[in-house]
């Protein structure tokens, strides 16, 4: 009995040792410790602000519009299906931005990006009906056939611009 007790005590010291247990000992022996420069939050934000000021590449955004998510950038055309009140020629601001990014970095919202940080503007180009969809029902050997036609309302949008504000994490103007 005493042999079992001493064996269990040895196992307990191995697994709950001061160095973090057997797993951490194994990992530290296999992988050499490397000194990596860890970017602080301020450094990352400063780098993103510099990239925004230089405007090196096209911005894109993922927006939420009429129950769907769309990836948009400058000059894109969207065909949105369903009833939507804006009329032709209206300039609108799309406010539900889920993500905004460039080739070099991304701003991810939780669930939305701050409204004053990203501006997505669009123009309504046309409104109309979609192509005719045919719904055909038939039951074999029962002399039953139905044909229904359906056309949905569509709105075509042109994305004018996707702009990221000049300063990320800056205080609002009314607080300064």
Topology:
Layout: H1 2-15, H2 22-30, H3 41-54, E1 60-65, E2 68-73, E3 77-81, E4 91-94, E5 97-101, E6 106-108, E7 118-129, E8 133-139, E9 144-150, E10 153-164
Antiparallel strand pairs: 1-2, 1-5, 3-10, 4-7, 5-6, 7-10, 8-9
Give a quick rundown of the structure.
The chain is α+β, with helices and mostly antiparallel strands and 176 residues long.
Care to describe what's here?
Keywords: Ribonucleoprotein, Ribosomal protein. The structure is a single chain. This protein has about 180 residues and is an alpha+beta fold. It folds into two domains: about 1-35, no CATH class; about 60-165, no CATH class. It contains three helices and ten strands, in the order αααββββββββββ. The strands form three sheets. Strands 2-1-5-6 form a four-stranded antiparallel beta sheet, with no helix packed on it. A four-stranded antiparallel beta sheet has the order 3-10-7-4, with no helix packed on it. A hairpin with a 4-residue loop joins β5 (about 95-100) and β6 (about 105-110). The radius of gyration is 29 Å and the shape is flat. The chain starts with a helix and ends in a 12-residue tail after the last strand. Mean pLDDT is about 80; it is low at about 20-35.
What are the defining features of this structure?
single chain; ribonucleoprotein; 176 residues; 10 strands; 3 helices; 4-stranded antiparallel sheet; alpha+beta
């Amino acid at each position: 009995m005493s042999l079992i007790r001493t064996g269990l005590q040895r196992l307990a010291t191995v697994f709950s040792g001061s160095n973090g247990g057997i797993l951490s000992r194994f990992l530290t022996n296999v992988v050499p410790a490397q000194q990596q420069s860890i970017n602080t939050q301020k450094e990352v934000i400063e780098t993103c602000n510099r990239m925004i000021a230089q405007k090196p590449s096209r911005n894109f955004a993922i927006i939420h519009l009429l129950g769907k998510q769309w990836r948009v950038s400058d000059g894109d055309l969207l065909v949105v299906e369903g009833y939507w009140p804006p009329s032709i020629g209206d300039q609108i601001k799309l406010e539900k931005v889920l993500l905004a990014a460039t080739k070099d970095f991304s701003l991810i919202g939780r669930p939305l990006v701050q409204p004053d940080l990203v501006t997505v503007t669009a123009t309504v180009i046309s409104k109309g009906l979609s192509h005719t969809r045919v719904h055909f029902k038939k039951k074999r050997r029962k002399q039953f056939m139905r044909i229904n036609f359906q056309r949905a309302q569509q709105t075509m949008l042109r994305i004018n611009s996707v702009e990221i504000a000049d300063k990320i994490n800056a205080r609002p103007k009314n607080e300064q």
